[in-house]
């Protein structure tokens, strides 16, 4: 079983969706430094994706310094994977863009959008 969930949606590359889910789990603390990261084989089998896609995800996470390979242990989450504010903001970029586009389609003002976000923030706090 994977330590994070991926909800596949049409119209976006599988690679991007898996990478986003993995980064989100790491940045949000669901996967902590020292935790094991699934092998390429496990990723491909559990998510039913091409092993090359799983390899590409793992390679990208290594390039970004979020995971490292330890002989005899496999891939683990690195100490440097602790979330930086910039990484957290990066995770929201796509969602923010979609929100702004939808607000513009509905002809809402920036103030209307800010009020709506503020209200939802209060409701969840």
UniProtKB/TrEMBL annotation:
One Pfam family, short name: GntR
CDD domains: WHTH_GntR
KW Lyase (keyword) present: no
Molecular function terms, GO-annotated: DNA binding; DNA-binding transcription factor activity
Domain HTH gntR-type: 12-80
Coiled coil: 82-109
SMART domains the record matches: HTH_GNTR
Gene expressing this chain: ytrA
Provenance organism: Pontiella sulfatireligans
Signal sequence range: none
Protein name: HTH-type transcriptional repressor YtrA
Transmembrane parts of this sequence: none
SUPFAM superfamilies: Winged helix' DNA-binding domain
Sorted UniProt keywords: Coiled coil, DNA-binding, Transcription, Transcription regulation
